[in-house]
């Protein structure tokens, strides 16, 4: 891993946040985070970018005993009036708010410029197995990265597709390997915009014979602007 190259550092930060690294690589990144400010900034930026794709959390009703347990755990709580009259609780709340404000200010100051790294990102998910592929689009190329093993039967191949919003049908971006990244010139795309569809499908060995997907979808997702 080359932490001195800005492009590779940005990719490593994205893979670290997505959780697709091996245990050894993840440990190396975490060690580097303790001394490399650029890597720390890139990891924070990737986390912010991916928040847009995260599903909204479902509300959870707290247990009836939760507040009583919190109150019992606070040192020096008031003997009457419950948690809302506890000086320790309000001191803790104020400190937590200050810490959150400081964290927000830090992220605003250290945000990675928009010109660094990919301009669009799409996380392609398999119907049942979760995240399988990552699509990164910059001003020159499209990079498709396999994130987990995909077994292809003999006589079959994997084909990469995209469909801009409003397009009549998908455009083939060619056959791809499942064990290494594939790079495609941006000029081969019919266009690029937020919410653009990307997918990989299982096709005959030579690819789809009719110019549109014929086999099952292996993974699909939509692009977001970073």
Task: Describe the fold and architecture.
This is Anti-sigma factor. Residues 97-217 form the Anti-sigma K factor RskA C-terminal domain. InterPro entries: Anti-sigma-K/W_factor, RskA_C. With 226 residues, this protein is α+β, with helices and mostly antiparallel strands. An 8-stranded antiparallel beta sheet has the order 5-4-7-8-1-2-3-6, with no helix packed on it. The two termini are 24 Å apart. The model is unreliable at 108-115 (pLDDT under 50). It folds into 3 domains: 6-55, no CATH class; 66-108; 120-225, Sandwich (Immunoglobulin-like), CATH 2.60.40.10. It has helices spanning 6-18, 23-33, 37-50, 66-73, 87-109, and strands at residues 120-126, 130-137, 141-146, 156-163, 171-176, 182-185, 197-204, 217-225. Helices cover 31% and strands 25% of the residues. The radius of gyration is 23 Å and the shape is globular. The chain is built from 5 helices and 8 strands, in the order αααααββββββββ.
Helical element count?
5
User: What percentage of residues falls in helices of 4 or more residues?
Assistant: 25-40%
Average of pLDDT: 76
In the CATH hierarchy, the architecture of the largest domain is: Sandwich
Count of strand segments: 8
Q: Kindly provide the name of the CATH class of the largest domain.
A: Mainly Beta
Calculate the terminal CA-CA distance, rounded to whole Å.
24 Å
Order of helices and strands: HHHHHEEEEEEEE
**Class derived from helix and strand content:** alpha+beta
What profile does the largest beta sheet have?
8 strands, antiparallel
Please state the overall shape, judged from the principal axes of the Cα atoms.
Answer: globular
CATH homology-level superfamily of the largest domain: Immunoglobulins
Taken together, the total number of domains comes to 3
What ranges have pLDDT less than 50 throughout 5 or more consecutive residues?
Answer: 108-115
According to CATH, the fold-level topology of the largest domain is Immunoglobulin-like
How much of the sequence is in beta strands? 15-25%
User: Biggest sheet, strands in spatial order?
Assistant: 5-4-7-8-1-2-3-6
Radius of gyration: 23 Å
InterPro entries: Anti-sigma-K/W_factor (IPR051474), RskA_C (IPR018764)
Domain Anti-sigma K factor RskA C-terminal: 97-217
Protein name: Anti-sigma factor
Pfam families: RskA_C (PF10099)
């Amino acid at each position: 891993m080359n932490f001195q190259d800005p492009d590779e550092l940005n990719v490593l930060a994205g893979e670290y946040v997505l959780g697709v690294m091996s245990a050894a690589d993840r440990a190396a990144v975490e060690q580097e985070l303790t001394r490399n400010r650029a890597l720390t900034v890139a990891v924070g930026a990737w986390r912010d970018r991916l928040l847009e794709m995260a599903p909204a959390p479902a509300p959870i009703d707290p247990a009836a005993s939760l507040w009583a347990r919190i109150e019992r755990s606070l040192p020096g709580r008031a003997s009457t009036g419950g948690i809302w009259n506890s000086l320790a609780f309000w001191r803790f709340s104020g400190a937590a708010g200050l810490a959150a404000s400081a964290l927000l200010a830090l992220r605003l100051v250290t945000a990675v410029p928009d010109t660094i790294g990919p301009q669009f990102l799409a996380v392609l998910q398999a119907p049942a197995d979760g995240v399988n592929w990552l699509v990164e689009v910059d001003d020159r190329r499209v990079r498709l990265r396999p994130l987990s093993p995909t077994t292809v039967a003999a006589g079959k191949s994997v084909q990469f597709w995209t469909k801009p919003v409003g397009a009549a049908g998908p455009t083939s971006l060619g056959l791809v390997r499942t064990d290494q990244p594939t790079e495609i010139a941006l000029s081969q795309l019919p266009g690029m915009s937020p919410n653009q569809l990307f997918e990989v499908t299982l096709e005959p060995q030579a690819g789809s014979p009719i110019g549109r997907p014929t086999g099952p979808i292996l993974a699909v997702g939509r692009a977001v602007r970073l």
